[in-house]
Amino acid sequence: MKRNDVRNIAIIAHVDHGKTTLVDAMLKQAKVFRENQQVMVRVMDSNDLERERGITILSKNTAISLPHPDTRELIKINIVDTPGHADFGGEVERVMNMVDGVLLLVDAAEGPMPQTRFVLKKALEMGHRAVVVINKMDRRDADPDRALNMTFDLFIELGATEEQADFPVVYANGIEGRAGLTSDLEGNLEPLFKTIIEKVPAPDVRPDEPLQMLVANLGYDEYKGVTAVGRIFAGSMKVGQRICRMGLDGQVYNDQIRYLYVYQGLERKEVEEAQAGDIVCVAGLESVAIGETLADAENPISLPPIHVEEPTVRMTFAVNTSPFAGREGKWSTSRKLRERLFSELRNNVALRVEETDSADTFIVSGRGELHLAILIETMRREGYEFQVSKPEAIFIKGDDGEYLEPYEEVHIETSNDTVGVVVEMLGVRKGVMLDMVNNPDNTVHVTYRVPTRGLLGFRYQFLTATRGMGVMNTIFAGYDKLAPQISSRSTGSIVAWETGDSSTYGLKNAEERGTLFIGAGVPVYEGMVVGETQRGEDLAVNVCKKKHLTNMRQANKDIEVRLTPPRLMSLDEAIEYLAEDELLEVTPLNFRIRKKILNTEERGKTEKRTKELMSE
């Protein structure tokens, strides 16, 4: 039967198309906040990293209550805000199990983008109906008709059914909180609310059958332990009820509902009972995992588990072995590192962690460099100290035993002046051009198919080449035969050959050979990378060298030496910079690039042996 007093929707879109901003406006107009309440912008991006980077990383739940336009009966709308970045596609895949329909946001100027394709494909595969919202109608270059036509073409291309392709359309300006059924917007979001209530299907529920709830998300409450978020598909749930937890390993565990919440606005409201069709949060369960079913104790029936696409990129996480190990971190042992990585698997469903022959080294696989970089930054802020290797693509074996590698479809918008450089850079990385279109605003849109291996370390080189004006989006395009050898870095590293504090005199000598990453007075150790040289080979320099003082001066220039300010890297840039023989030492206070072999003499011998083997 249908439960007409509830609607469950997810808001999906490409990154930066205005999902979280639209949710802000929906919450305000549904009177979730007091009239005089101070509310931050993008209130759903509550995580520090989300606010700093301006992107949504984790899916989050909220709910509003609105009167039905005809009956005036209150309808509860459960809303799930999802990430738009391809690296966090696992968050989108798992919440699709909780909802019955989606709001697909499309930028009125840009139209559907690569990630729009990914999230819409997942929604259509689940059989969900979509309400298309042409957002950002206030943009000067907005062309809603073109955006709508491109969106319809995308639905057909992705194999939408006739019912799915006959989607309702709402035009909106999320920042101003205005919407309309035509491009002439009204003064509020009433047309959007009405379309959701009338066009998004009410949930199908089985209230008289045994309890079934699928766990789609996990959290943690300081007082009540692990929290499990999911949707009740059948039966009802009460506080104190005995249940069975159907584990992913096939085992059945007995448990009890200790705390039960539903979402109302930004708050979790404690309730005694919830019905089929509700999205609820259960606290106090032991060892619960995403994808498990909470079922009736007398008649446990499992729901299909959540499946997400496999990761394509991996890195090694290991205990810090640098001479500065243990100085800055709170947690630095292999036991703590192992505990933290495996605990991450509980709510990061797209991540994989494998143990290796070495007890202090782990292989961590994810959807992309950003996916792994967010994990590294989160652990660093929690006080962990460790070292990571250069990201590498994950190869798989095909049906005929031949190795295959992942490929990405890359969409780039850049100026006419820099498109030649971009084409040359992607050619070196074994990219194949699929399309090139000149846009009306004198920019060029190029589409490439590139091995994932070729894109590792590419983003910041691309931004430098396009003077920060280029826009790049990628989407996973499947596996194919191995591409030829790809050289990702043409520069070498300037490496410290002595432990101590860097000096202005020593750095001046190094500065003449390339770009420095550190300034004077910074503690360094032998084997630490302190700069980049345009030569293809590494260069060992004594940056701790001090000038011998005399009481004679030849000229004033001997008294004062000026250094160019060093190039300060972000964590993402440092990860992209890494070469095959380098590691990134990560601590709560610093991250340092270093060579795997720290001893200069030993490293030289190893490089010589490698060259001899290559020549043979």
From TrEMBL:
Annotated residues that bind GTP are located at D16, H17, G18, K19, T20, T21
| Reported function | A 50S ribosomal subunit assembly protein with GTPase activity, required for 50S subunit assembly at low temperatures, may also play a role in translation. Binds GTP and analogs. Binds the 70S ribosome between the 30S and 50S subunits, in a similar position as ribosome-bound EF-G; it contacts a number of ribosomal proteins, both rRNAs and the A-site tRNA.
User: What is the protein name for this chain?
Assistant: Large ribosomal subunit assembly factor BipA
SUPFAM superfamilies linked to this entry: EF-G C-terminal domain-like (SSF54980), P-loop containing nucleoside triphosphate hydrolases (SSF52540), Translation proteins (SSF50447)
Which molecular function GO terms apply here? GTP binding; GTPase activity; ribosome binding; rRNA binding; tRNA binding
Query: Can you tell me which family this protein belongs to?
Result: Belongs to the TRAFAC class translation factor GTPase superfamily. Classic translation factor GTPase family. BipA subfamily.
PANTHER family in alphabetical order? TR-TYPE G DOMAIN-CONTAINING PROTEIN, TRANSLATION ELONGATION FACTOR-RELATED
Determine if Metal-binding is one of this entry's keywords.
Answer: no
Alphabetical UniProt keywords:
Cytoplasm, GTP-binding, Hydrolase, Nucleotide-binding, Ribosome biogenesis, RNA-binding, rRNA-binding, tRNA-binding
Main localization category: cytoplasm
Give the InterPro entries listed for this entry: BipA, BipA_C, BipA_GTP-bd_dom, BipA_II, BipA_III, BipA_V, EFG_III/V, EFG_V-like
Q: Partners and quaternary state?
A: Monomer.
